[in-house]
Amino acid sequence: MNLRNWVVPATAALLLAGCTAKVEKPSGYRIFVANETSGDMTVIDSATLEPVGPAIPLGKRPRGMHASPDGKYIYIALSGTPPAPPGVDEDTLPPPDKSADGIAVFDVAAMKVARVLKAGSDPENFDVSHDGKFIYISNEDSGGVGFVDIAGGAVVNSVKTGEEPEGVTVTPDGKLIFSTNEGDGTITVIDPANARLLNTFKVGRRPRNIVFMPDGKHGYVNAENDGTVVYFDAEKHEVVKAIELGTPGEVKPMGLAMAPDAKHLYVSTGRGHKVFVIDTATNQAVANFEAGQRPWGIAVAPDGKTLFTANGPSNDVSVVDLATNTVTKKIKGGTGTYSVVVLPR
């Protein structure tokens, strides 16, 4: 072989390999934490498990938080209504600042709020349509689910639900919306294409959040005041089983997060301090562990190895190794850490 004829292609191949390495996406992910009291966002790098910089301003009382389908934006519910924890006389609170209500659109690349969408009164929880065109949000003050047109930045439709709508979740196929109603312990099923209520069914006291199995045939909803997570048939709209986690009042199921392989469901319990692990094959609680002070918002890393919980009273985020179900680190956030979203780089 002529050495010169071999060297040129080999060198070109090496140069090409080098170019390819430079354009590879960095590994890992980032953890985005909304801080309700300080009104800002803490961004944490998975490689260092430390904040990447100072907290980023969002607006008043950021709570519910979801990413856009393409991961380019994070939507955060903002509210000018003062917090009213249990035992507080609401008549003693300052009047709500309705001008602060909305959905912040956080640009992930620019790391700042790009704009704020109008979303009705005191928005808290919501979900995003699969095509990324709408946000479906619970509006407790008006007793329904509002349809926010993201491009237009305003509510374009609404559907009345049960009493005190709370959590909103779109089914895996994107065809239906399920809304929890705290006041009457029900789930309302909505057809978004026609903005029409299809059904309402009982699930337990004070339901908040819903997650579905990947095929969409069944789902889970927490019943906070019953100390249970309810497994329901999403096609027949009926309860299949209530999974008991502990004594009602002592164990208060709050946030739900499904493992990437859907083999386990993780449930935060607020003042119960714990996270419970439910085996989705048997629908039994198979483990529980201390996570922090009042763990609420909860999210699982894309590789399924790590869990993150937002612990409001201690203003931090717990990092949980799911191989051992132990907290390996607590990361300082802003004041009143509330919700968590994990996005790959």
Give the helix/strand layout.
Elements: H1 3-23, E1 29-35, E2 40-45, E3 50-51, E4 56-57, E5 65-67, E6 73-78, E7 102-107, E8 112-117, E9 126-128, E10 134-139, E11 144-149, E12 154-160, E13 165-170, E14 177-181, E15 186-191, E16 196-202, E17 207-212, E18 218-223, E19 228-233, E20 238-244, E21 256-258, E22 264-268, E23 274-279, E24 284-290, E25 295-300, E26 306-311, E27 316-321, E28 326-332, E29 337-344
Antiparallel strand pairs: 1-2, 1-29, 2-3, 2-4, 5-6, 6-7, 7-8, 9-10, 10-11, 11-12, 13-14, 14-15, 15-16, 17-18, 18-19, 19-20, 21-22, 22-23, 23-24, 25-26, 26-27, 27-28
Brief descriptors of the model:
mainly beta, five-stranded antiparallel beta sheet, four-stranded antiparallel beta sheet, 345 residues
Looking at how many chains there are and whether they match, the oligomeric state comes to: single chain
Give the distance, in angstroms, between the N- and C-terminal Cα atoms: 45 Å
- Which bin fits the share of residues in helices? under 10%
Average per-residue pLDDT, rounded, comes to 91
Q: Which structural class should the secondary elements be placed in?
A: mainly beta
Beta-strand share of residues: over 45%
Described by the principal axes of the CA atoms, the overall outline is: globular
Number of E-type strands: 29
**Strand/helix succession:** HEEEEEEEEEEEEEEEEEEEEEEEEEEEEE
Q: Total number of helical segments? A: 1
Largest sheet: 5 strands, antiparallel
Low-confidence parts lasting 5 or more residues at pLDDT below 50? 1-25
**Rg, nearest Å:** 22 Å
